[in-house]
Amino acid sequence: MKRRLIPFLVVVLAFVLPLTLLAQDSLADLQKQVRDREIAFAKTMADRDHAAFSSFVSEEAIFMGRTVSRGRVAVAEAWKRFFEGPKAPFSWEPERVEVIDSGTLAISSGPVRDPAGNRTGTFNSTWRRESDGQWRVVLDIGCPPCRP
User: Fold this and answer.
1) Of 2, 90, 77, 5, whose CA–CA distance to 44 is shortest?
2) What pLDDT does 19 receive?
3) pLDDT tens profile 49-71
């Protein structure tokens, strides 16, 4: 029985393993997914769409600013003031995106700009690929502009 099982397992693995590897996204694909999500996330501010903004935030998110907001509802409430008025008080865009090898977490970082386009800070967001396959922000913090 054991003699037949080993060749059978070898044959199964020979077919299944390549299919599994093909199904996984490449690191470059994952980085593009996160970059695209970050750009879409930032667009919610420009579009003044608070509901869309909230959809990018994980239920377990922690956003650190003047205060700490925990959870999607608290983050949405804390950020609501930034969506008041016809013009966005700031914008952001990703400069760097890195994804861990497992493809489950990523970090994005880039400039925060005032309405005139001047760099006023740097954002750092940690993204998690959640059970529905969507990337959502789980950790976010801004800081003064990084010096080269």
Assistant:
1) 90
2) 41
3) 999 999 999 999 999 998 999 99
Domain spanning 50-148, CATH architecture: Roll (3.10)
What is the DSSP annotation of 79-91? HGGGG-SSS-S-E
User: Which pLDDT value is given to residue 18?
Assistant: 44
SS3 57: strand
Three-state helix/strand/coil letters over 89-104: CCEECCCEEEECCCCC
Residue type, 56: F
Q: Judging by DSSP bridges, how do beta strands 96-99 and 105-113 pair with one another?
A: antiparallel
Binning the chain into helix, strand and coil, the percentages to the nearest 5 are: 40, 30, 30
Q: Where are the domains of the chain?
A: 50-148
DSSP designation for 104: S
Contact 103, 129 (CB under 8 A): yes
Task: Report DSSP state, residue 148.
Answer: -
The percentage of residues in the chain with a pLDDT greater than 90, rounded to a whole number, is 77
Indicate the residue type of 80. Answer: K
CA distances from 93 to 4, 44, 63, 102, 125 (A): 57, 12, 17, 25, 11
